[in-house]
Write a structure and sequence with these properties.
Layout lengths: L1 H46 L5 E7 L2 E7 L5 E11 L4 E9 L5 E8 L13 H5 L11 E3 L9 E3 L5 H21 L1
Parallel strand pairs: 6-7
Antiparallel strand pairs: 1-2, 2-3, 3-4, 4-5
Length: 181
């Protein structure tokens, strides 16, 4: 009888706890999705400076945003990029100008890199290297020296894998975007 009581009590506790977790998950999921949309929207305006409006385009597994000024002149394109980093998936957005000669900016949307090392990809100093970076040939990174070519960035000391991952993610996504646009 004692064992049956314990089973009933534990079952009730499990059901109530599971129900509460399911409710909280559904409630939070909507807020998380809304925050992701708001963050992506802000990033589009950040990586293509001067953007007043944009048009979202989704082709295959690629999503990009054609960016316009206040008189519908095309300023450039913001492209969502995603790939593996050192510790998990890195999601970022990169901007290119209208004639695809230069990158106009880069912003990390999500990352799980090592705090204090790879997580520096989210810092303004690293991201600023992508402003006015040559779009062709593909981006390269250098370690321990200053960039000497117009398409080079400096890798984060102690976080070469994260830096290389960002470069590879952007290069791969740009190649895909050039095929589908």
């Amino acid at each position: 009888m004692k064992i049956l009581k314990m089973i009933v009590v534990l079952t009730l506790i499990g059901l109530i706890s599971g129900g509460v977790l399911a409710y909280v998950y559904q409630w939070a999921e909507l807020k998380i999705a809304a925050n992701q949309v708001r963050e992506t929207d802000a990033a589009v305006f950040k990586v293509v400076p001067g953007t007043k409006s944009y048009k979202t385009i989704a082709k295959d597994d690629l999503t990009y945003f054609e960016c316009f000024d206040d008189v519908d002149g095309k300023l450039g394109t913001a492209i969502l990029c995603q790939g593996n980093g050192y510790q998990g998936v890195i999601k970022l957005i990169v901007g290119v100008n209208a004639d695809f000669s230069k990158f106009t900016g880069m912003s990390v949307l999500e990352q799980l890199e090592t705090p204090g090392l790879g997580a520096k990809i989210s810092e303004a100093v690293f991201q600023a290297q992508f402003n006015n970076l040559a779009a062709r040939p593909p981006i390269e990174y250098v370690k321990g020296i200053s960039p000497s070519k117009p398409n080079e960035i400096q890798a984060i000391t102690g976080a070469t894998i994260s830096s290389r991952s960002v470069v590879n993610i952007i290069n791969k996504t740009i190649e895909e975007w050039l095929r589908v646009k």
